[in-house]
């Protein structure tokens, strides 16, 4: 336990530097995951953890992941909303951990939403059935 | 839901929505009496008396986005299916939900990935203090995020990736000790 307390102290020091850097960058991107019963049952937990993992792997300082309740579109769960400053929100539906990797790479890092995973695409697909 | 840890995730989300600042999750695996018990206790706003009798009805909900509320309904159904008991107590401050299942019942779901459940909760609600206690016939594992916060200080939130990574390791080490060195993620 003593070893892990020392490790935690080191994490704290490094984290304080990171937070200072984040403050200078201003408002960042918010990733919101629906975590009501419907979301959880549909697989929101691995989706949410995949976002955390990818963000850590790429060391993205200006992205935060938060949860929300039922968005009201249970049949499209797991649902993820991405909020970028001064841009319209993008709603991703039927998310999976595999889809998360692509959303992080193309949307969060490079600023291009993955249209095939959005609610607009999914609804158009259903309308054409 | 096919894992008890998903039921727990769902129950704790209720606690967070009720404004809880402390949530205590307790699991007791009692092989001698063939019982698997789960308790989720919070210090949130509680449930009014006239509502508490209706919470396990799937067609009752306080939310406005839809007309059904499945969380507690699913949990109470699970207890029924597994020859167990279900109770919601909100008489004091906060709420305690208890699920007691027959451990050996064929319909009892496995605990599943409880580490992922705890990480998800800490990542999305870093302001809440989570206490996790897991008792088996072999021993007890206890984890309290408050202790981490005392070392990290107010400026460093628990949901920073580097801190979450640390928590993940602490949980896996602690739980695999409890289960005699087995990797519980497998």
From TrEMBL, chain A:
Keywords: Iron, Iron-sulfur, Metal-binding
Gene3D superfamilies with a match to the protein in the record: Glutaredoxin (3.40.30.10)
S-adenosyl-L-methionine as UniProt keyword: no
Domain of life: Bacteria
Membrane-crossing residue ranges in chain numbering: none
Name this polypeptide is given: (2Fe-2S) ferredoxin domain-containing protein
Lineage: Bacteria, Bacillati, Bacillota, Bacillota incertae sedis, Caldicellulosiruptorales
TrEMBL record, chain B:
Entry keywords, A to Z: ATP-binding, Kinase, Nucleotide-binding, Transferase, Two-component regulatory system
Pfam family membership, one: HATPase_c
Limits of the Histidine kinase domain: 1-105
Reaction catalysed by this enzyme: ATP + protein L-histidine = ADP + protein N-phospho-L-histidine
Name used for this protein in its record: histidine kinase
EC number: 2.7.13.3
Enzyme class (EC, first level): transferase
InterPro entries cross-referenced by the UniProt entry: HATPase_C_sf, HATPase_dom, His_kinase_dom, Sig_transdc_His_kin-like_C
Keyword Nucleotide-binding: yes
